[in-house]
Amino acid sequence: MVIVDTSAWIPFFNRPESAEKRAIDALIDADRAVMVGVVLAELLQGCRTSKESMAILAEITGLRFLEAGFGTWRRTGELSASLRSAGITLPLSDILIAALALEHGCQVYTLDPHFAQVPGLSLYRPPKRAATPR
Q1: Which pick of 27, 70, 121, 131 has the fewest CB atoms within 10 Å?
Q2: Which residue ranges make up each domain of the chain?
Q3: Whole-model pTM?
Q4: What is the pLDDT of residue 127?
């Protein structure tokens, strides 16, 4: 399973010929793409029209959705504290994504290089040429 970060969804929606679009389409087709609340919120906050938000909701409907409960939030705080003690400060939203991935054994597909600083986090690297766009 792969949590797709906002940074990868943006080219998916805005550049239909992008490598990210091909990679995410392949993950969706293989039933491996996962959505989390903070990514959904970030995508919707960037919409300028209701048509844009409806297009996003239509595309993600049917994806697995991971909820963040008490344990996830605790792990997020602990992970953030651990990173900060090592001199690494990451956005809380990204630490939450990392905590969910660690909790559920998921990889993270992201274009943000700072995710590589999270110990134990597995990053998804798509094949050089993913499946053709849907």
Answers
A1: 70
A2: 2-123
A3: 0.92
A4: 87
